[in-house]
Write a structure and sequence with these properties.
The longest helix is centred in the middle third of the chain and has 18 residues. 33% of the residues are buried. A six-stranded mixed sheet has the order 5-6-7-3-8-9, with helices on both faces. The chain has a four-stranded antiparallel sheet with strand order 11-12-10-13. A three-stranded antiparallel sheet has the order 2-1-4, covered by helices on one side. By secondary structure, it is α/β, with parallel strands linked by helices. The mean pLDDT is 92. It has two domains: 219 residues, P-loop containing nucleotide triphosphate hydrolases (Rossmann fold), CATH 3.40.50; 65 residues, Alpha-Beta Plaits (2-Layer Sandwich), CATH 3.30.70. It is 37% helix and 25% strand. The chain binds adenosine-5'-triphosphate. GO terms for molecular function: ATP binding; ATP hydrolysis activity.
Amino acid sequence: MIRGVFRLKPAVFEARNVSKQYRSGFALQGLDMKIMEGDIYGFVGENGAGKTTLMKIIGGLVQPTDGRILLFGQQGKKELCAARRRVGFLIEMPALYPHMSAEENLTFYHHVLGIRNPKRIGEALRAVALTDTGNKRTSEYSLGMRQRLGLAVALLGSPQLLVLDEPINGLDPAGIVDMRHILERLAKEEGVTILISSHILGELQLLATRYGFIHKGSLVQEIAAGELLKSAQAMICIAAPNAEKTAELLKQRLQIPDISVNTAGELQIPKASVDLERLMAVLLQEGIPVEGFNLSVPNLEHYYMDLIGGVKR
Ligand SMILES: Nc1ncnc2c1ncn2[C@@H]1O[C@H](COP(=O)(O)OP(=O)(O)OP(=O)(O)O)[C@@H](O)[C@H]1O
């Protein structure tokens, strides 16, 4: 009998009880976190929650006050140093020479970073769709192009893990979509694991396969994108007159106890608990005019606000 072998993907990065204290106070406090190979890990938290500090710790730019990190399973000082060569960072925009082209800037970083394979310059340019920029000076680039060039610098070392701190911040809608397509391709076709922070939750939701929610320096929750959607309910929202009275009536007629009225004064019914045809038939029979109808799909923003709201309370 042939039995399938189920292999767990290895952790690419782990933080164990990591704290970082500045004079002004704690930026991280006992943070635990795990990024598995192949994840696009959306790192979510309000301003000052500690996202950049953690990313800088991964890059060795900041030392933790307490706790430890593992990169590709390595944790000794020397081993971490070697493991960092397998990571590409876009935490702060690398300095670009404004009078030089994308290729010339990449050639410079290729040299500075001591990368041996000269093919990487062309490959990195292709990966970020900047091959047709010719001799154009980077001073004439849009923010989206500069950001893509910054990503190309991070890609020069053929990283297995990319650490990206708000890479779509300030980009226009087209720039955001370009960046999403580039990152999706890197993850799917090249198997690159990605840690990405962003405040643009609607966009992050289109990309991430897993989320980590950080609040005041601690990780509040890690959850797979699919689990997040399952855990939050889709709601049918109906605008109708006398919402409270109508809600009571529908509860009785449909035998559904959890019909509520939301802050917009609409009836709110969990989609999974009702048959839509029956709902419409009852509304018709009772002569209740439907003034508005929509389906609120569970999303990252609602989930995050509920989660952090709960933590803050
Ligand atoms: N070099 C530093 N010296 C002192 N305090 C710092 C330093 N760097 C960060 N902090 C503080 O640590 C906390 C966490 O900052 P961090 O930049 O990591 O948050 P963040 O989640 O990346 O925020 P944002 O979304 O605004 O970028 C903040 O209170 C910040 O003021």
